[in-house]
């Protein structure tokens, strides 16, 4: 009798590769975002989709506060159309980043979700900033 892990066989390697490649097209993690900022190779715009009050209390360094409800075509036209946006919110218990990603993708923009959000950032031991920094 197999374990509950092996009870359902793993997907074939080719199918697994397609699945995980697709998954990574939708998301990035806190460690990769941190590494990009640390190396100076920031080829994306990091957007914090939480409220301005929460953003001012603490946010990921380099992030711009832009709640998902304010992500309009006019507002987003401040960036080139080929900009990659990375969005985050409070963490796994919050769907603000998902709403932001949906809104941006419906505007025809490239977007990835930073999985873990603020919770993931803290779990990695990375520091936060305080203060106000909003989108133009």
TrEMBL record:
Q: What is this protein called?
A: Rhodanese-like domain-containing protein
The segment(s) forming the Rhodanese domain are: 40-130
**Which Pfam family, any one of them, does this sequence belong to?**
Rhodanese
Q: Which domain of life is it from?
A: Bacteria
Database matches in PANTHER family: FAD-DEPENDENT OXIDOREDUCTASE (PTHR43031), PYRIDINE NUCLEOTIDE-DISULPHIDE OXIDOREDUCTASE (PTHR43031:SF1)
> Which organism encodes this protein?
Rhizobium changzhiense
